[in-house]
Amino acid sequence: MNFKKMFERGTAILATSIVLNATEVKGQSPQTLDQNQIQDSHIEHKADQNMPTGFKRDYIVGSMNGQEKIVASLFYFEEGKTKVEFLSNDLHPEAFSPEINYDKIRRIVESKGNDFVIAFAGAYKSPSNNIEGIALEEGISVGEQNFSKWSGFVYITPDGNIELHRLKDAQENFDKNAAQNLIQKAEQEQGSLFQQIPAVWNGEKKMTSSSQDKFEYRAICETKDGKKFVLNCSEKITLNDFLDMALNLKSENGEQLIKTLMLEDTGVYSYGVFEDKDGKEYKMVDENYANNKTGYTNVVVISK
User: Fold this and answer.
1) pTM of this prediction?
2) Average pLDDT of 217-226?
3) For 151-184, what is each residue's pLDDT tens digit?
4) DSSP state of 304
5) Is 119 exposed, middle or buried (0-12, 13-18, 19+ CB in 10 A)?
6) Domain locations in the chain?
7) DSSP assignment of 152-211, as one string?
8) Which of 82, 77, 103, 120 has the alpha carbon at shortest distance from 232?
9) Which of 122, 125, 92, 123 is nearest to 107 (CA)?
10) What is the rounded CA–CA span in Å between residue 138 and residue 117?
């Protein structure tokens, strides 16, 4: 999920031209069908999921290179039966140095009386090896002093629920006052938050890229009826194809599934894990895993 590297190489649309409103897209010409594009994607439900209580896993099946295969997973987590946490290297250096150590993160979670299930990097790493932009862990600042360019905020309440925010005013400018209010709320409640990319909002695509580079993307999503899930893509596709695939997903009643999609891009890496109900661990790795096992600054953990 090296979207930030795409920016650095100049192959994606940068801050001044990145499209946060799909209606403003210009110069997009029809693309010849790429063999790595996912066609005819749809959700499949499996009865025997072997997931812990409070979690459900569905699969996205699509055709690539003429072959039908699983291309992504949806990990639903039920509020009230699960708990979301945000852990930083500032407050838990032992779990991040010299490289990410999910066994130590698991022990941190279990020390609070929770059972570790899913974890992955959530926020960008800045050039100075901090969490990019504003970030708080349980009310304590663990990020930078200035906002990043992303208008999205992931807010984790003290009781472990998650809220997704896109802070724009009526003119589609960053709403700094709303952001300050959210920060104050986190400080007072001892909640956690970090900035990210609100790529889909109210069922509409809010960003695009001209790049044809392919990565394995991950996102936190919310359905129109308020259900939350992690969308984890296991195949390399372009950002636009990932978002189009997500927007085309249908609920059981045939309606558009995703209302909100917060892209969980980190810039340089994205190694995560999840466990089944028997405690067996599975890796969620992206295209940079082999070369980027260090430098992690944060993780989002979902436990039960």
Assistant:
1) 0.87
2) 95
3) 999 999 999 999 999 999 999 999 999 999 999 9
4) -
5) buried
6) 3-23+39-80+90-127+196-303
7) EEEEE-TTS-EEEEE-B-TTS-B-HHHHHHHHHHHHHHT-EEEEEEEEEETTEE------
8) 120
9) 92
10) 20
